[in-house]
Amino acid sequence: MCGIIGYIGTKEALPILIKGLRRLEYRGYDSAGVAVQDKGVLQRVRAVGKIDNLAEKVKDHDIGGTVGIAHTRWATHGGVTEENAHPHVDCSGDLALVHNGIIENYRELKEKYLAKHIFQSQTDTEILAHLIEENYQGDLRSAVQSALALVQGTYGLVAMHRKEPNKIVAARLGSPLVIGVGDHEYFIASDTSPMLAYTQKVIFLDDGELAEISKEGFEIFTLRDQKISKPTEEITWNEAEAQTNGFPHFMLKEIFDQPTVIKDALRGRLILEDGSAKLGGLNMTVEEIQSIKRVILIACGTASYAALVGKNAFERLAGIPTTVEIASEFRYSDPIIDRHTLVFGISQSGETADTLAAIREAKRKGAYVRGIVNVIGSTIARETDGGTYIHAGPELAVASTKAYTNMIAVLLMYALEFGRSNRLAIATGERLVRALQEIPEKMKIVLEQSDTIKKMAEKFKKYDDFFFLGRGVNYPVALEGSLKLKEISYIHSEAYPGGEMKHGPIALLSKDFPVFALLTKNSLYDKMRSNIEEIKARGAPIILIATEGDAQALALTDNVIYVPTTMELLEPLINTIPLQLFAYHMAVLLGKDVDRPRNLAKSVTVE
Questions:
Q1: Does the structure show a pLDDT above 90 at 280?
Q2: What angle is formed at CA 107 by the lines to CA 598 and CA 42, rounded to 5 degrees?
Q3: By percentage, how much of the chain surpasses pLDDT 90?
Q4: Spatial separation of the C-alpha atoms in residues 347 and 353, rounded to whole Å
Q5: Which DSSP string corresponds to 558-580?
Q6: Distances in Å between the alpha carbon of 83 and those of 47, 86, 240?
Q7: Which of 7, 39, 272, 606 is the most exposed place for a label (fewest CB within 10 A)?
Q8: What is the mean predicted confidence (pLDDT) over 281-287?
């Protein structure tokens, strides 16, 4: 949530900043602003709503200069107003600052140090501007270091000062920042997307680090002013990969990306002749793998539903007791962890604050801790002792699609690797490897039904409530389908295991309460069919996901989406796609902002 872009170089800053903000829109925001300085003058413009509003507003100002900062805000402290939008300034207007994160002790700081300062917003961020002003004695870096020594909370902070026109200072604690190294120009942003048009050379700041950036170069320090050296990394994504490639929305493009990106996740990791998988980032010996007595999968939202699929796989293939923990609850639950526990932190962005806090707690308790993330160089990738990139490529729609299926693919491969190291027969492993290799083509078969699913969405767009039902490996699919529908279409939906309907939820069924059920040919087919018969008897409209060739499904409803058959553990990779398409088409038909749904952010960097 929230986005930062800063620039210092030889080009006009304003067009770069506005373009950068557009690249950050996927993170979720409700207002935006920009500040540029030139020849001793600092100009600031802010606007509520879309970047277009800000872009239109800056036309009324003569803004020049080659140094500037900009921000998209997602409201936490204070309402959605221009006064609360970033950048914020100090009393003199000499200092401008943007900030991601939360300053937890902002009230105490205001009362103790800033009684004489004049505040213009209700934000916690403005406290930082005045606190830096209070400590400023001609050196912005020193003032930022002194101010942050008093702060409790999280921040990705970028500041500039009118009296030091050739300098930007950035600091990070718990909220990501990355420096982009261009040709006689530098960028600072909350992720790489705003700078991909200009450079693919980057340096990731870690917690407790501060960067001083000028047109001549940059230096990195600790908050105690110790100079440190960090390597430049090369980002493999390019700007073209971050565009819609002719699709009307990023979300639809990313749904259709899945056959390609799952190949990227599987490539070089499957070993057919051994019926196994090998993920190099695990960084564990065979003996260490065999010592694991418990696996804990920590995640939030969509990632937690991928984790539920992983739980099934670890227990069935490897025989290891596995639990899925919601990250925001994990570290407050006094978890039982020892040296025989393996913890995976799962996050698309690799910056999810709750997941970060949870894996830090697991490390303190002595577990093996590994990450499963999409974003290269993200905090979880750097703070864990190993793990795996899911290789889904940039995912710019707020609602996750291709990252979700790639997370499942990686978890399945981990479960296969652990299974073959423990008890799984080679023949079973070979069948699973072959089935995984067939998944991309089977995904394409489902995607070809997009227009049919659109017609089904047209038929059901009038309903205000939905149930999603699944059993076994398809219960997490139901959860994910329900989440997608509510995320982007704002339709109320709930998900249940099929057998739970009769324990209460069935009371809601009527002709106005449709049920979307997963009825594929697996070990629970007969049980699930009985559950759907109960729904049919109560007159609720039904949509089914069924296996190709299952004529019995048409006896239950006319609304059937057929999917190719695959091994039961792999069904979520196929069965999720119709639910993604259904949610997408419903949202479009209802006129919703599919890529940037209200109140949501792509990367949740506050607890």
A1: no
A2: 70
A3: 77
A4: 10
A5: S-EEEE----GGGHHHHHHHHHH
A6: 9, 8, 35
A7: 39
A8: 90
Alpha-carbon distance 466 to 410, whole Å? 30
Q: Which of 110, 311, 442, 602 is flagged as catalytic?
A: 602
CA nearest neighbour of 480 among 355, 342, 580: 580
Which one is catalytic: 2, 253, 442, 484? Answer: 2
What pLDDT is attached to residue 395?
Answer: 86
For 21-37, b where at least 16 C-beta lie within 10 A, e where not — what string?
A: bbbbbbbbbbbbbbbbb
- Rounded CA-CA distance 522/471 in Å is 10
**Residue entry with tokens 């949202």:** 587
Please state, in angstroms and rounded to a whole number, the distance separating the CA atoms of residues 7 and 17.
7
Given a contact cutoff of 8 angstroms between Cβ atoms, the answer to whether 82 and 134 are in contact is: no
Q: What are phi and psi of 503, to 5 degrees?
A: -95, 35
Q: How far is CA 570 from CA 141, 255, 433, 561, in A?
A: 53, 18, 11, 18
Higher pLDDT, 521 or 236: 521
Q: Return d(Cα 19, Cα 196) in angstroms, integer.
A: 11
**C-beta of residue 24 within 8 angstroms of C-beta of residue 193:** yes
Yes or no: say if 128 and 155 are a contact pair by the CB < 8 Å rule: yes
Predicted pLDDT at 377 = 77
Average pLDDT, the chain: 93
The per-residue pLDDT for range 127-137, each reduced to its tens digit, is 999 999 999 99
* Ramachandran region, residue 158 (left: φ > 0; alpha: ψ -120 to 50; beta: rest): beta
Write down all domains in the chain, each with its CATH number in brackets.
3-242 (3.60.20.10), 250-441 (3.40.50.10490), 450-589 (3.40.50.10490)
Please calculate the CA angle 65-66-70 and round it to the nearest 5 degrees. 90
Strands (E) across 317-464 are located at 322-326, 341-347, 368-373, 387-389
Phi, psi for residue 270 in degrees, rounded to 5: -100, 140
Predicted confidence band at 242 (pLDDT cuts at 50, 70, 90)?
Answer: low
Q: Which residue shows structure tokens 């402290």? A: 77
Q: What is the pLDDT of residues 377-423, one digit of tens each?
A: 788 988 999 999 998 888 889 999 999 999 999 999 999 999 999 88
**446 alpha carbon, distance to own chain's centre:** 25
State how far Cα 314 lies from the chain centre. Answer: 24
3-state secondary structure 346-365: EECCCCCHHHHHHHHHHHHC
Is 602 in the active site? yes
The pLDDT, as a whole number, for residue 40 is: 86
Instruction: Provide mean pLDDT across the span 290-313.
Output: 96
> Reduced to 3 states, what is the DSSP secondary structure of residue 284?
coil
**Strands 368-373, 341-347: pairing kind:** parallel
Strands (E), 320-410: 322-326, 341-347, 368-373, 387-389
Tell me the C-alpha distance between 175 and 206, whole Å.
Answer: 9
For 426-463, how does the pLDDT look when each residue is reduced to its tens digit (9 = 90+)?
Answer: 999 999 999 999 999 999 999 999 999 999 999 999 99
Evaluate whether 590 touches 464 at the Cβ level (below 8 Å).
no
